[in-house]
Design brief:
The protein has four domains: 22-145, Rossmann fold; 152-279, Rossmann fold (3-Layer(aba) Sandwich), CATH 3.40.50; 289-439, Reverse transcriptase/Diguanylate cyclase domain (Alpha-Beta Plaits); 446-575, Response regulator (Rossmann fold, 3-Layer(aba) Sandwich), CATH 3.40.50. The chain contains 22 helices and 22 strands. The strands form five sheets. The protein has a five-stranded parallel sheet with strand order 2-1-3-4-5, with helices on both faces. It has a five-stranded parallel sheet with strand order 7-6-8-9-10, with helices on both faces. Helix 14 packs across helix 15 and helix 19 (485-492) runs parallel beside helix 20 (515-524). The longest helix has 23 residues, at 257-279. The two termini are 23 Å apart.
């Protein structure tokens, strides 16, 4: 009984996600007396998986920091206390052993202010006014720089004392160091470690650091890897040779610890920023085409190794160019960002959600069959349709999308083949009227559809039929509606039936010939060998359920039913 109740619960619009402990989410502290802006920021931050708290003055800010250390602080220098008090707090935070990153925003944008903020250790300067979404983009960028895995450094130095010095200097600062004594083993170690930065000694036997640097710069994979050279010679000729080889910087021996750590941190921060710019869509913060292709390739290799399915969906916002033309590009940007939020809420952390360009998005779903992916995107489509947008002139409108879903390895064995299959299904969804999700391999053969259907609904309730048929159509099912039992028997039985169906949804209470009588005729005529029947019954009519199952029905759904439950039963029956 408990299992039955659980199965009949309506599915959530957002699919199950891994629960993240509250304390593991990054914490943003907003120090500002502008309550309205702070509250809007908190809403925006929550939608992006960031906890946010507000302090309206410096005293409350210090108390909040004492209670729980934030991961980043947004400090406004325009509240009732003087700016000097705000700068004092900035200096206090920068002086801590482990400084808290602070972004400053102020309506007073002068060069003197910028210099003072930079001198006191501020990590960002944001002029007011600025939209909450823009503020959050800057904050998320700073979080991405500060909340990263420990950097991996590969050091190549034939001097054992030099390697020991590097380990003593770098490991206390959280760096993961691999020290290599023989440069001839460099290439294999580089591929195995995949470091974030290289330290190369210039003076080594067999291969010196400048030669290794040339080798690294000649390979596309490592061309942007930060390289620092270590040398006992700091004359102009040596410096020129090092930089000409492609090194980003050099450090003289004997090594000064703080100088080396500072240079490494600066180059790592710049490398992370450039990588983020190269892999992230600037407007939505999602992965871009380059990054998504890379991740999808990794997921495909994983799916092949573990023999798991992988679904790839391509979707395009309907009439997105028209939205930009009619309501302006600012409104178009808001549509993209709100749709991004829906996508991020709807998929798991191990899935890849990317913006391909314009209104086109791509989602890779590991270990998810195609039909489940179609249903998932139909739920996302329903969530988007419920979003209301308002333009600057007060016009209100809704947005939909068209999508296609392909599955590995059925529809393709690589990213390009899967994308083409999903894109073709998306094009067919557009041709069929947009606002729907089709599986790869879907066909629009009208002559075939007239004689064959995925789902036949036999029910005289016109309102219910409209809802069910619309939901089926959105998911790419070929469906036919028959209003009474006589029509069902005439269409589905006989030596050459007018209509063949994979699944029949058969209501028990039909005018004239009722559902049980229709089922009996289908069984007598051998239709149930090729067609599965799901009965639609009333909750109290247990005898009807038993009679239907004895006659050959494979399942039943009690009225009034939840549409997601019915769709789940249909999907399960089609798979059986």
């Amino acid at each position: 009984m408990a299992l039955g109740k659980e199965l009949e619960r309506p599915l959530s619009v957002s699919p199950p996600r891994e629960r993240v402990a509250e304390e593991t989410r990054p914490l943003l502290l907003i120090v500002d007396d502008d309550v309205e802006l702070a509250e809007r920021l908190i809403v925006e931050a929550t939608a992006r998986g960031i906890r946010a708290a507000m302090a309206q003055n410096l005293t409350a800010a210090r108390q909040a920091i004492t209670r729980e250390r934030p991961h980043v602080i947004l400090l406004a220098l325009s509240f009732s206390e003087t700016s000097a008090d705000g700068l004092t707090l900035l200096a206090e935070l920068a002086a801590q052993a482990s400084p808290i990153p602070v972004m400053v925003m102020t309506a007073r944008d002068t060069f003197v202010d910028r210099v003072e903020v930079a001198r006191l250790g501020g990590r960002g300067f944001l002029p007011k006014p600025m939209l909450p979404a823009q503020l959050l983009e800057a904050i998320m960028s700073l979080l991405a720089q500060t909340r990263t895995a420990p950097p991996y450094i590969l050091a190549v130095d034939d001097d054992p004392q030099g390697r020991a010095v590097l380990r003593a200097l770098l490991e206390p600062h959280g760096f993961k160091l691999t020290a290599l004594d023989d440069p001839r083993r460099f290439w294999d170690t580089l591929a195995e470690i995949a470091p974030d930065l290289l330290l190369l000694d210039v003076d080594m036997p067999y291969l010196d650091g400048t030669v290794l640097c040339h080798v690294v710069r000649n390979d596309l994979r490592w061309r942007d890897l930060p390289v620092l050279c270590l040398t006992t010679h700091t004359d102009t000729a040596t410096a020129q040779r090092i930089l000409t080889a492609g090194a980003d910087d050099y450090v003289g021996k004997p090594i000064v610890g703080p100088e080396l750590v500072a240079r490494i941190n600066n180059h790592l921060a710049r490398s992370r920023l450039l990588r983020s710019l190269a892999e992230t869509d600037a407007l939505t913060g999602l992965a871009n085409r380059r990054k998504a292709t890379q991740v999808l390739g990794q997921l495909l290799r994983l799916a092949g190794r573990h023999r798991q399915p992988l679904s790839l969906a391509v979707l395009d916002l309907d009439h997105f160019k028209q939205i930009n033309a009619q309501y302006g590009y600012g409104m178009g940007d808001e549509v993209l960002q709100r749709f991004r939020d829906i996508l991020l809420r709807s998929f798991r952390s191990e899935d890849i959600v990317a913006r391909w360009g314009g209104g086109v998005f791509v989602v890779g779903m590991y270990s998810m069959p195609r039909d489940v992916g179609v249903n998932r995107f139909a739920e996302v489509l329903e969530a988007l349709r419920q979003e209301e947008f308002a333009s600057a002139d007060g016009a209100r409108f809704h947005v939909t999308f068209s999508a296609g879903v392909a599955e590995y390895p059925t529809d393709g064995s690589d990213v390009q083949a899967l994308y083409r299959a999903a894109e073709q299904a998306m094009s067919q969804a557009k041709e069929a009227g947009r606002n729907r999700v089709f599986p790869a391999g879907w066909h629009a053969d009208q002559e075939l559809a007239a004689h064959s259907a995925d789902i036949v609904l036999v029910d005289n309730d016109e309102t219910l039929a409209g809802l069910v048929l619309h939901a089926l159509e959105m998911r790419g099912y070929h469906s036919v509606w028959l209003k009474d039992g006589e029509a069902a028997v005439n269409s589905l039985t006989g030596p050459q039936p007018q209509l063949q169906a994979r699944v029949v949804l058969l209501d028990v209470n039909l005018p004239g010939l009722d559902g049980l009588a229709v089922l009996r005729r289908l069984a007598q005529d051998g239709v149930l060998w090729r067609t599965r029947v799901i009965m639609l019954t009333f909750r109290s009519a247990e005898s009807e359920v038993v009679a239907a199952l004895e006659l050959g029905a494979v399942d039943h759904v009690a009225k009034p039913f939840s549409l997601p439950v019915l769709l789940q039963r249909i999907r399960r029956t089609l798979q059986a």
